[in-house]
Amino acid sequence: MSTLAQDTHHDHDHKPTGLKRWFFSTNHKDIGTLYLIFALTMFFVGGGMAMIIRAELFQPGLQFVDPQFYNSMVTIHALVMIFGAVMPAGVGLANWMIPLMIGAPDMALPRMNNMSFWILPFAFALLLSTIFMQGGGPAGGWTMYPPLVLQTGEAFPFLIFAIHFLGISSIMGAINIIATVFNMRAPGMSLMQMPLFVWTWVITSFLLIASLPVLAGAVTMLLTDKYFGTSFFNAAGGGDPVLFQHIFWFFGHPEVYILALPAFGIVSSIIPTFSRKPLFGYASMVYATASIAILSFFVWAHHMFTVGLPIKGELFFMYATMLIAVPTGVKVFNWVATMWKGAMTFETPMLFAIAFVILFTIGGFSGLMLGITPVDFQYHDTYFVVAHFHYVLLTGAVFALMAAVYYWLPKWTGYMYDERLGKIHFWLSTIAANVLFFPQHFLGLAGMPRRIPDYNIQFADFNMISSIGGFAYGLTQLLFVYIVIKCALGGKKSKAKSWEGARGLEWTVPSPAPFHTFETPPKIRKEMLENG
Amino acid sequence: MKSSNTKAKINKKNKRLAIILGIMACSFYGLFVLVFAIND
Ligand code: HEM
Ligand SMILES: [Cu+2]
User: DSSP code of A517?
Assistant: First the structure.
């Protein structure tokens, strides 16, 4: 292991200390850590809001909060979870792992990397401060449809400004990832040998660059409509409010794949490790990911079936949506085929990964149902939708992120986490999440609308069950924090290769990974690669 | 050891790619707002 000796040697020089280390960091591992800590914090901020929502919905009638505040909780919960928790967690993992996976010394543009991160705390301080403003926080839903959103009080310009900041941060992050992967790979690492996690992040980065400017454009137009006398979305001035929905979802659907694709990448690393078999159908996985990304730009109006589109448009968007099931099916098939006849073991990362495959697929199936135009007239804006996107986002994206943390924690800290507690965390989370979200399918089919603080008593039982699941899920995540902190502080030492079946360059450097790695590019041998 | 020459070359390549991608993002934004502004 020539890399090993040279890495430890480098560890002792120039590692900045104190505040300077974190505020001015240009080190991909430190910035990755910052992203991950920030994401976890935001997960609890958004989770706290979810607890308020579920407390209010525990029983019919209004009990704790007034409806305006309830609506702002629903809106900010979503914005925080999407832009503050899931996306930054993904970027944090990308920062930590991509250079290690492709044998690069750092990200391509380290100073820009620092800026991408430090924009986030400011943007969220701005966004969260709106809760205390005259007129309350934004309450029209995270989709910000006009004309409703234009009724927002003083919070409005802050909301728009925060969204612009978040967009700029993510675009810079995406540029950095693309430059890193295209220019910084160790000699001998071809594109088609990269781990799937790297591939999914390259493709996600292109989605970010193509879709976030569209969101920025849309919210700029909202801003000028409100303050500068334009009428892009104002019917009285010759504009069209439905236009906003088209623009928003042209961003919005690719956005859901921005959340999902990195999760696919994570699971594609974990399942082979614990099945002790190479990933089945590597190339088809790459092509499927790319197809999903491209298709995701042609399905946006499945969010708008009920606005009165021309029938040919409805049919087009229905069929295009069905088409996405094909590459997604390829992926699920490949994960299952990887496990098939493998020597499987079920450590916590693998448990979360398997739960991901099953539960994400449930979310995919309800998504298919929603994509069928005529029946969506019944499901639209009901709890069925809420159940759907929480299966793909919580038991999908968030479960994959949890799997990733357990998988790479030994690499980051140098210690193994407590496996027994990890398994308890997994089982409690999985049971609670299903108790929380499965009954919402029934509520939706029975007609309970979303984004409403009160409901008819016929929905009482399922709501109570759902809330109990919600509180249980929320509490369980405290255990996760305990496990992570405990692992960071000590425990059983991890080897360089933390998992017996693991392959890939990240396992050739010591655990914890030294401050500087691969300053000299590694000499790649086939058996070191995840997909050799 | 990587010579500082190749390092400088990679840095230049990185910056060029970043600028191209940045311009791409900005023009997507500009295009969208412009198209609808003309329409208005
Ligand atoms: C702690 C677990 C969670 C609970 C208990 C929870 C609960 C809820 C509830 C009750 C709503 C409001 C439904 C409505 O009336 O429309 C909601 C909305 C939403 N949640 Fe969650 N959620 C959780 C985690 C997440 C995560 C991890 C994400 C994102 C990755 C997420 C994304 C959303 C989105 C996008 C909405 C829609 C907001 C809107 O309609 O404007 N949630 N959630
Ligand atoms: Cu969609």
Answer: -
pLDDT given for residue A482 in this prediction: 98
Q: What is the CA radius of gyration of chain B?
A: 17
Q: Answer yes or no: pTM beyond 0.90.
A: yes
DSSP secondary structure string, A168-189? Answer: HHHHHHHHHHHHHHHH-PPTT-
3-state SS record for A11-30: HCCCCCCHHHHHHCCCCHHH
- Residues 3-32 in B contacting A (C-alpha not used; CB under 8 Å): 10, 13-15, 17-18, 21-22, 24-26, 28-29, 32
Instruction: Looking at the complex, report in whole angstroms how far the Cα of residue A456 sits from the nearest Cα belonging to chain B.
Output: 42
Q: What is the pLDDT of residue B2?
A: 52
Ligand 2 centre and the CA of A142: distance in Å?
A: 14
For A27-528, the fitting CATH number among 1.20.210.10, 2.40.30.10, 3.40.1190.20, 1.40.20.10 is 1.20.210.10
Q: pLDDT digits over A278-336, tens only?
A: 999 999 999 999 999 999 999 999 999 999 999 999 999 999 999 999 999 999 999 99
Question: Nearest CA to A116 among A97, A98, A90?
Answer: A90
